[in-house]
Design brief:
This protein has helices spanning about 120-130, 140-155, 170-180, 190-195, 200-210, 215-235, 240-245, 250-260, 265-270; strands at about 15-20, 35-45, 45-50, 55-60, 65, 70-75, 85-90, 110. Helix 1 (about 120-130) runs antiparallel to helix 2, helix 3 (about 170-180) crosses helix 5 and helix 7 (about 240-245) packs across helix 8 (about 250-260). The longest helix is centred in the C-terminal third of the chain and has 19 residues, at about 215-235. By secondary structure, the protein is α+β, with helices and mostly antiparallel strands. Strand 3 (about 45-50) and strand 4 (about 55-60) form a beta hairpin. It has a five-stranded antiparallel sheet with strand order 1-7-2-5-8. The protein has a three-stranded antiparallel sheet with strand order 4-3-6, with no helix packed on it.
């Protein structure tokens, strides 16, 4: 049976791939994706991911599968910060109709620890990373490389742990998702109150109860998480990045970046840009 035979129609699509590098154990940036799944490969270091209120300790060689709609966040350890390759996948359609749009089964444990398949998994992730750093990657070849990896994960990591369920408040997730998807806009407690037809106090209470963070602090977390990714993965100027993440004053953005991250944007870029993940 060829790997194409496992899929119903077209092969899954690679939406994007990027390198994440967290310098220290910074605060979680909770978010979710409604139409894509993330494969997070830990190229070096260690840390913690939180997926649907469950903690996973990750280290070099691990792969974490974060399905569509799962709220999640990650943070590096203080002394051995993580470098992770994040592969974002869409259009997953298995012929097997048990969770046909999930990469793995709902009963499967989403953390794949280093083991027999590590050489293949790590080399495949690195090959895809090299491809998708090119200005015009061969997307069809990328799909052909990705598909056997997904089949391996689907078939070899079934029923590896007791079933686990989401426990988040759906409304709190919707608020979090709205902020995450509109972070570059002029968001305030007042605009959130108008959008969700509830008081600002109730919105703040929900996020504090579910995720231990205020709406505005979460907005700032998202903006700086996005800005770090842009510094590492693009050649945009500091001013362009400031505007992209919602700051109209680049000098103010730089001041906040230094206060929050501990480095200027330029210094952060020089530290981490074009550093290949270690294997």
């Amino acid at each position: 049976m060829f790997f194409q035979d496992y899929f119903d129609g077209c092969l899954p699509t690679i939406e994007r791939m990027h390198l994440d590098y967290n310098l220290t154990d910074q605060a979680y940036t909770f978010h979710l994706h409604k139409n894509v799944t993330e494969l997070v490969y830990v190229a070096s270091g260690n840390g913690i991911y939180m997926v649907n209120h469950q903690h996973f300790s990750v280290e070099k060689g691990d792969i974490l599968v974060i399905e569509s709609g799962f709220i999640h966040a990650g943070a590096s350890s203080l002394h051995n910060p993580m470098k992770t390759l994040v592969l974002v996948v869409s259009d997953v359609h298995w012929k097997d109709k048990s969770a046909p749009n999930n990469i793995i089964y709902p009963t499967s444990y989403p953390l794949i620890k280093e083991g027999t398949h590590t050489p293949y998994l790590s080399s495949t992730m690195m090959e895809l990373w090299r491809m998708y750093r090119e200005p015009k990657p061969d997307t069809e070849l990328g799909r052909m490389i990705l598909a056997p990896l997904l089949v391996l994960l689907r078939k070899n990591y079934k029923d590896t742990a007791p079933h686990w369920k989401a426990r988040e408040n759906p409304l709190a997730c919707d608020i979090l998702s709205y902020i995450y998807n509109h972070y570059a806009e002029d968001i305030s407690l007042e605009t959130l109150s108008q959008h969700f037809y509830m008081s600002a106090g109730h919105i703040s209470h929900l996020l504090q109860k579910e995720f231990q963070i205020s709406p505005i602090n979460y907005l700032i977390d998202v903006r700086f998480s996005k800005s770090k990714a842009l510094l590492i993965n693009t050649d945009l100027s500091i001013a362009e990045i400031a505007y992209t993440v919602g700051y109209n004053n680049p000098a103010h953005f730089t001041k906040l970046f230094i206060k929050r991250i501990g480095y200027s944007p330029n210094d952060y870029r020089m530290l981490h840009k074009n550093i290949p993940p270690e294997l």
